[in-house]
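Fold this sequence, please.
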Amino acid sequence: MKSLTILSLMAFSVSALFADDALQFMPDPYQLGSIPQGEVRHVTIKGANMTSKPIDIESVMCQGTGCSNYKFTPSVSSRSPVTVEFDLNTASMEGPLTNLVVLIGKDGKTYTTQIEGEVESPFFFSEKMFDAGYYTAGESREWNFYVWCSDKKAKPELALDTSSSREFTAEFKPVKLNVDKPDHVKEGGKIPGLKVTLKTKGMDRTKTPAKQKSISRIVSFKSSAFPKATPEVLVIGYWK
């Protein structure tokens, strides 16, 4: 971890001719590949100080969510390697992942690199956002949508998470789906799925700041088959 090959340093030297940052990382962006939703991935990225002066690093941060437990080379001599490590928690992520990693020098200068990947949820939803319209506290609303597994042979198993059960209820009906057109999912196919009926039990006005007119509720589900996954939908609207 404390040494780079001569070829790597040569590659950094070439890239430095066309870059503004004194710390150069390879590869940039760093490719994470596919990550199952909920997995915590330990990430190690490596670079080098391409200047003739030492660089002292005070801290490291990510501009996106999910990063923690940073470790880094605090003092990087001229033409010497730098290593940054951290844990990436994908529990709240889904789909394409792009995250900027920022190193902050003791002199206030910043140095950046990027990580990219794809967070794969075990579930597909026919819809993930629902409009409650102009809403009065205590009113009932109902929506229907379909859920199936990314492994199209598997039977989906879902339940409403306790964090959402105070304001919502959900019913689950096993169905067979045709998902050839993701924007027009319908029953009558071969893919095992669930028809979900989501209902409000009466959203609570006191959960929203007094002057805020908009409604935003994340409705969370859970699955014993995929305990690390975080399947969610969003309910929006406006208070009357």
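Residues 123-239 form a domain with the Immunoglobulin-like fold (CATH 2.60.40). The first strand starts at residue 23 and ends at 25.
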